Amino acid sequence: MLTGKQKRYLRSMAHHLDPIFQVGKGGTNEHLFRHINDAIEKRELMKISILNNCLDDKQDIAQELVEGTGAELVQIIGGTIILYKESRDHKEIQLPN
Prior knowledge:
The chain is α+β, with helices and mostly antiparallel strands. It is 38% helix and 21% strand.
């Protein structure tokens, strides 16, 4: 579980990142979870954008992504979800206490 201080730190790091994945009208699925897991293992911090044609609620999509990938939700802002998951092999981000 991330603290408020850690979330602020991760939001500041994610500010300059571009979204890597997009969730469209098809919503989320196992294929998307697998790709996000592979990418987040290397990056630790990732933005995912929700397209305008997606009819699902942003909160629901974020919850599905968290459950499907095991990552932690940092923020939902507009149509963008920021996820963090500590990497086993490529750890670069040192979270504040």
